[in-house]
Design a protein that fits this description.
The protein has 121 residues and is an all-beta fold. Strands 2, 4, 5, 6, 9, 10 and 11 form a seven-stranded mixed sheet that branches. It has a four-stranded antiparallel sheet with strand order 1-3-8-7, with no helix packed on it. Strand 9 and strand 10 form a beta hairpin. It is elongated, with a radius of gyration of 14 Å.
Length: 121
């Protein structure tokens, strides 16, 4: 059973920093892109940042220059360093991985359970 487990959310003051981490486990043949999405109350889920297996990155305009995504292919982890946090960054953050489970011929998107990030004074 493939799982994505997130950690690192919490409450932080505006201007502060948080680091989110996500680890993939289970019988996995390969992992393609990994990324972070977020969903604020009353809004649709949106892409925050993504990274390919080769290390190419993509960011939402709203987080460019403040957030940094990274991954460790050997450990099957992806992290999101969030600096200069703003109240509008408040949301549930979800880890995503496009991966091919062992013994499967197709890739599928997997999601973590979500972790709450609240930016407030």
């Amino acid at each position: 059973q493939v799982q994505l487990v997130e950690s690192g959310g919490g409450l932080v003051q505006p201007g502060g920093s948080l680091r989110l981490s996500c680890a993939a486990s289970g019988f996995i043949f390969k992992i393609n892109a990994m990324g972070w999405y977020r969903q604020a109350p009353g809004k649709e889920r949106e892409l925050v940042a993504a990274i390919t297996s080769g290390g190419s990155t993509n960011y939402a305009d709203s987080v460019k220059g403040r957030f940094t995504i990274s991954r460790d292919n050997a450990k099957k982890t992806v992290s999101l360093q969030m600096n200069s946090l703003k109240p509008e960054d408040t949301a549930v953050y979800y880890c995503n991985a496009n991966l091919q489970p062992l013994y499967y011929s197709r890739t599928t998107d997997y999601w973590g359970q979500g972790t709450q990030v609240t930016v407030s004074s």
